[in-house]
């Protein structure tokens, strides 16, 4: 039995005008996505400081990243599908308020145990960003959906790339707890703003919650385009994570020898690439998704070639960062634009299927990057990142010319 046989359009919500790229609500949702996902990355540049403050080893402190990632995966599986079932505005604001509580818990943590538990809760609730993106897609006009998704995703990507930089500067100026107290206030304000500005909209499915979760696997089985785009996204984010996990190791050593603050500024370079990639949504609306996907995946490979061959040249690293971010983030936006056309009533579950695999790719990339750098240096990292990008590009070559995308 198919997903469509279980889902039906909900007509209980008031008629909502189609969302256009220039609407204020698009920018509000973009900022909200960025603020939500940034919570995953505030602790990363503070690991050394946290190890000192809690009196733990670097290995134990490294579990902070693991717990945050674990919470995010759980949230993707259990919370995001609720966007197809519950009233979305209420779901988003309640989960955002939950993030504020988790962040406050991190700020007052007396030891590593309570901090790890808070990180699990932060990751679990930060998935509100992945409820907002399909919500924006559902509100958008069909002919402008790609552009709307692109702008909302630009906010999300900026949150990922700038969180580390902002966190480092705040911690240097006011202490590490100030980072989490400020984030707490931001999420409280964001919850109130979203309650005020988001329209009421209930998901159209009639499934029970267990069946809702199970239907994610049905979507994966029934939608070949979803599976294809998952491969592109998973490999692309693995390559992205390979780079951002090891770049600090490269830049902290000769010939660079940069401090943590200077290394954090490279997030700004990546942000420029992310903003450029937001135009990918407009490319989708014009119907050029397939060739654009190939070009963007090729940029990922080219970026690692440049950074691998010219690793001692700062200009080459900067060019590589920009190309990598344009390629990975642009293809990610195209992937989401495509999957949101597959089933109008299952966009949140499509997000769960895609983003769970996408994030798993990031975990693989991050986990393998450090070990490869330890034994193979930056050239090994460049080969690893290029390999992930190359797999995605070679798989793109298998698309038939009459493919719908």
Question: Could you write a compact summary of the structure shown?
Answer:
With 405 residues, this protein is mostly helical. Helix content is 75%, strand content 0%. The protein contains 17 helices and no strands.
List the helices and strands and how they pair.
Blueprint lengths: L23 H15 L8 H8 L3 H4 L1 H16 L9 H20 L4 H14 L2 H12 L5 H30 L1 H22 L11 H14 L1 H28 L8 H5 L1 H12 L2 H6 L3 H21 L4 H26 L7 H50 L9
Helix pairs in contact: 1-7, 1-8, 1-9, 4-6, 4-17, 5-6, 5-7, 5-9, 7-8, 7-17, 8-9, 8-13, 8-16, 10-17, 11-16, 11-17, 13-16, 15-16, 15-17
Which key terms come to mind for this protein?
405 residues; globular; 0% strand; 17 helices
Report what the structure shows:
This protein has 405 residues and is mainly α. The protein has 17 helices and no strands. The longest helix is centred in the C-terminal third of the chain and has 50 residues, at 347-396. Residues 5-13 have low confidence and may be disordered.
Instruction: List how many beta strands DSSP finds.
Output: 0
Number of helices: 17
* β-sheet strand percentage: under 5%
Radius of gyration: 20 Å
Intertermini distance: 26 Å
Low-confidence sequence ranges: 5-13
Q: Determine the fraction of residues in helical runs and give it as a percent range.
A: over 70%
Largest sheet: none
Name the structural class.
mainly alpha
What is the global morphology? globular
Mean pLDDT: 85
Q: Give, in order, the helices and strands.
A: HHHHHHHHHHHHHHHHH
